[in-house]
Here is the input.
Amino acid sequence: MRVFPPIPERPQLTGLVRVVALVIWLVLSPQALGITCGAIVTADADPGGTISPSGQVEIPLGGVQFFVITANEGFLVSRVTVDGFVVGLRPGPVFNYTFLSPWSDFCSVSYHSVYAYFVRALTVTASAGPGGTISFAGVHSYYPRTDSHEFDITPDEGFITLDVLVDGVSVGAVSSYIFRDLSTDHTIEAHFLEVFPAIAPALDLILDDN
Here is the structure.
C-alpha cells in the first residue's frame, strides 16, 4: 500500500506578521488611495430657488451635512425630496434639511439625492385707511389652492367701517372676509368713516342693511 506524506498544516500568522499586515492596511487605506468612504449626495433644485451646498457633496462615514433650501422672491418651497421620498411639504420660503451619513466599520459608498421644488407664490395685499385696522396688513404670500385665509376689519373708537373692497369691488361694510382656494393674486382694502358717538349705532344699522 502506497503511503502519502502528511498534508502540512497552514502556517499561523505570528504577532509580528499581524502588525505588519495592519501597517500595510493603514498605509493603503481607502482614504490614502483617494477612495471616498461615506455618502455622495447630488443636491439640485428647480428654477425658483436654490439649495446650498449644491452639486455632488461628499459626506464621510458618520458625517453630517446641512442643506439650506431658499426660495427666490415671489416663490415658495413646494416640496423637498431625498432619494425620491418627500421630507418637506410646503414648508414656506426656507427649509433646512440635515443629512446623516451612516457609520460603518468598513469602507462603503452610498449614493443619494436631495432635490428642491418651488412654486410661484400667490399674494394677498391687505390695507386699511385711517380710522381702523385690518389684520395682517401688508403683502402676504400663499400657496396656490390652499386652505382659507381670513382677514378681520376693526374700526377705531369713533369710527365705523364704511366699505371693504376686494379686488376693487365692494363687498359691503363687513367685519371679516375670507379668501378660499386661492388661484390668483388679490387685494383687500378697508375704509372707515368718522362719526359722532350718538349716530354711530344708527349708521351701523344702515350700512348693515345695505
Remarks:
- The helical segments are 15-27, 200-209.
- The chain has a mean pLDDT of 85.
- Residues 36-119 form one domain.
